[in-house]
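Re-run requested by the PI after the first attempt was lost when the workstation crashed. Everything re-entered from the original request form. Ligand of interest: pyridoxal-5'-phosphate.
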Amino acid sequence: MDSLTLPNQAGPAARGTGQRDLTVSAAASLRRHDPELDGLLEQEFRRQQDTLAMVAYASLADPSVLACGASVLANVTAEGYPGARYHPGCRWLDQVEELAVRRTRAVFGARYANVQPHSCSQANLSVLFALMRPGDTVLGLALDAGGHLTHGAPASVVGDYFHAVGYGVGEDGRIDYGQLRRLAHRYRPKVVIAGASAYPRALDYERFRAVADEVGAYLLADISHIAGLVAAGVHPSPIDLAHITTLSTYKQLGGPRGGLILSGAECDTPGPDGVRTLAQLMQRAVFPRSQGTLNAAGIAAKARALALVARPEFRDLAERIVGDARALAEELTRRGHRVLTGGTDTHMVLVDTTPLGLSGAAAERALEECGILANRNRIPNDTRSPRITSGLRFGTNILAQRGLGPQDMGECADLVHQVLTATEPAGGAGHRLDPVVRDRVRRAVHRLCRRHPLPGYTAEPAA
Ligand SMILES: *Cc1c(COP(=O)(O)O)cnc(C)c1O
């Protein structure tokens, strides 16, 4: 028997100093010994409770996910993979990482999963630097059309090291697949990226794959924003169509900060060197090529979040997220707002603020004054800078998590509408909001938030 496993000794654990008691006593200790920091965390808790977060880029982590992030695994330093570490003391971490990998593969129906990326940006960089050489061409959705920095924007290292070509959207705001194909034939990319940060419609992964195949490119699907919908089966899955899929674990999975790299049917396909498979390449792409030590507590938190995603309740949540977004788009349209593409297939609703005479920045700030969060976002053919913009991006992940359904979206749209129609531009990103409307909406937001508290965050302390 392993000498490290001592059976049930009546030692420290019996005196209540095990990992389980740590989180509770640690919170009390922080409160007692660092009231300044503790006070800030408490304020942040209240802000989250009393703010109507109508944002697309976040979800709430279940408190059990937060507990994993604050666990003793945070003390573990390790490089490498389970069974092949470069540090001692990884016995339990190995099992946690294997659990996270198993759960990830099961949730997404993937054959390969890497749970170590510190973020989706990091995941994308790892993938692109594994599949391409500096100077090779990557074809991704242009930033202005809703793409992500790491899909080839000049401001990203991707735009610096690779020849980045961007496809865009047509007059109707939807991806111009004809242009995608023409650009692919003209520039012969090594990698085509299907994915977006600000695009409300489902992606046609079969079309993307057909284009990639025509020019011999690898297809990378970045489902950062829609990972929850994909996991729940309410958005088409790219796992077996793309060569590689990447995602963030916090945006829609209720997980910790972090990323994942997945591969399905193509995981044994040879990489560009013709020797290693894509799965083998991805293992090296993360460690040692682009990351050092892993985030052990974060990997535990990913494992916990994926267990929650695997439950049938998560599918109900995903359906509510999409139902809410459709209803929100309709209710905003009914009040005269210009919703891009005329609606949504996802959790995201994009609104052009130009008809209101407002920049995205002014609209964002006016809403925040009233306790409503939605972020400024560039829209196709935007004439304003990325800091100012002409659009607002809404999302329904957190509304749905708080239990708000499609029948509540009229109320949410109405609050937004009241604020935006009582706001005037005041030079640059400045704005002036009618104080009477502001106070009325603030109170209404507060009441709505109290009726729909953050789920799991308000449990009475155990007696
Ligand atoms: C947010 C986002 C990322 C980056 O994710 P991080 O985890 O914040 O690095 C990558 N791709 C897309 C499409 C995104 O929307």
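Saved to the shared folder this time. Residues 249 and 255 are 5 Å apart (CA to CA).
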